[in-house]
Every structure is written in structure tokens, then in C-alpha cells.
Amino acid sequence: MRLFVAIPLPEEVKERVGTLRGGIPDARWIAAENSHVTLAFIGEVQSPMMMDITLALGRIKYPAFDIDIEGVGVFGSNKRPRILWAGVRATAAINLLHQKIVTAIESVGATVDDRRFRPHITLARVHNSPYERVRNFLTDHALFKTETLPVTSFTLFSSHLSSSSAIYQEEVSFDLFSPVSS
């Protein structure tokens, strides 16, 4: 089964992200209910490895933190965009959680996608979409922003490909601890 680790988003944030859908011909939009912030993509694993990964992730102790979702952008070049995304401000907190997750997964012999970590919410795949329309979308939504979002957990998801889209299933959720206030 295909696995990834992500921050699940509350319904109101999924709805806000869903308002960005549209306006680009040939874009393959991700269903709003599938919106999440990927922390690590693992890929195909067998069931015994999934159990090892679950146990390793369960040993992570990390404080809750906040994230800010703001702006839109693309992966790929500006002239040949591939992925359209909503941005998540990269902070020390999210970067360190990502690193702890990668270390935990690799400690049990699994591998993680090794692309540079850039926190984001995937909106659409835009391989064949007209460049002008993508550029206009980026300009029109440059100021997109949601309320600051508290992150109190992360989740191991499985991904099942169907003929129309991927179906994500929450497998195990891991709570972050509340920082002690003084």
C-alpha cells in the first residue's frame, strides 16, 4: 500500500482551500476533502513495514505548534508548471517535525521521498494547462490566506488510486503534546 505522513486539515480550512478550485483549463484539481500538508511521502510498502513505521512514528515526542497557510505557487518552472499549490509558511517547528518523521521512518529501513521539503497543500496538477491561465491564477490568488492553524497531531495515511482520483484513508493519528506555559 502507498503511505504518506501529513497534517490533516479541519473542514473549514478544506472548504477555504476548495474555493481556489477552477479557472484553469485542463487542470486536474485535488478534491477539497483530500487537502492536507504532506510531511513525508513513503510510497509502496508491505503490511509488516507499515507496522514498523507506525511504531517508529508513535515514539516521536514533539510539541504542538501553529502553521500559516498563505499564497499560491507552482512546482516546476514558471513556463512549464506541474503542480499548483497553496503555501504553508516554512517554520523551524514544521521543518524539525518533518526531520523527526523522516528519521523515524528511515530507522526501520523504509525510505522517504528525498526531494527538498517545502510545506504546501497540493491544489492541482497542471501539466497541459495554458501558461497564461496559470499565471493569472497565481496573480489572482497571491494574497490567499487562512486563519493561523494549530497543529496538534500528524497522521499516517494510505493512498489508494482509483480511476478518477486518489482515495486517502487515515490509518493512525499521532498526537503532539501541548507545550508547558509559564
Percentage of β-strand residues = 35-45%
Unreliable sequence segments: none
What value does the average pLDDT take? 94
Q: Percent of residues in helical segments?
A: 25-40%
Name the CATH homologous superfamily: Cyclic phosphodiesterase
Strand order of the largest sheet: 3-1-9-10
What does the oligomeric state look like here?
single chain
Total number of domains? 1
H and E order: EHEEHEEEHEHEEE
Domain Phosphoesterase HXTX: 7-85, 92-168
GO molecular function, one term: RNA 2',3'-cyclic 3'-phosphodiesterase activity
Function: Hydrolyzes RNA 2',3'-cyclic phosphodiester to an RNA 2'-phosphomonoester.
Motif (HXTX 1): 36-39
Model description:
The protein has a single domain, classed as Cyclic Phosphodiesterase, Chain: A (Alpha-Beta Complex). It is built from four helices and ten strands, in the order E-H-E-E-H-E-E-E-H-E-H-E-E-E. The chain has helices spanning 11-18, 47-58, 92-107, 131-140, and strands spanning 2-8, 28-29, 36-44, 65-67, 69-76, 81-88, 120-125, 149-151, 153-161, 166-175. Strands 3-1-9-10 form a four-stranded antiparallel sheet, with helices on one face. A four-stranded antiparallel sheet has the order 2-7-6-5, with helices on one face. A two-stranded antiparallel ribbon has the order 4-8. Strand 5 (69-76) and strand 6 form a beta hairpin. Helix 2 (47-58) packs across helix 3. The longest helix is centred in the middle third of the chain and has 16 residues, at 92-107.
